[in-house]
Specification:
alpha/beta, three-stranded parallel beta sheet, elongated
Length: about 80
């Protein structure tokens, strides 16, 4: 799940915690969240959200997700090949 939104320290954090509690892999892209208090938002991104999600900048997210998609495609190919 890629999480974006406003109020990093409230809504984004609460949603991230709930998704992580459900066992979902969560990404937070730094450029896609904001907070009315910039210092508070930065602190939450740097010190709190990283406990529940992969917090990445946009470029790092693009790289990470492309690698994961390639791995998923490789696994699907191997399973289909074994199935005949």
């Amino acid at each position: 799940v890629v999480l974006a939104g406003l109020k990093t320290a409230q809504g984004v954090l609460a949603t991230c915690q709930a998704l992580a509690d459900e066992g979902l892999l969560v990404y937070v892209v730094r450029e896609c969240v904001a907070d009315s208090d910039e210092a508070r938002g930065r602190a939450v991104l740097d010190h709190v959200l990283c406990q529940y999600a992969d917090v990445l900048n946009a470029e790092a997210f693009r790289e990470q997700i492309s690698q994961e998609l390639m791995m998923d495609m490789f696994i699907a190919f191997k399973i289909a090949k074994r199935a005949g």
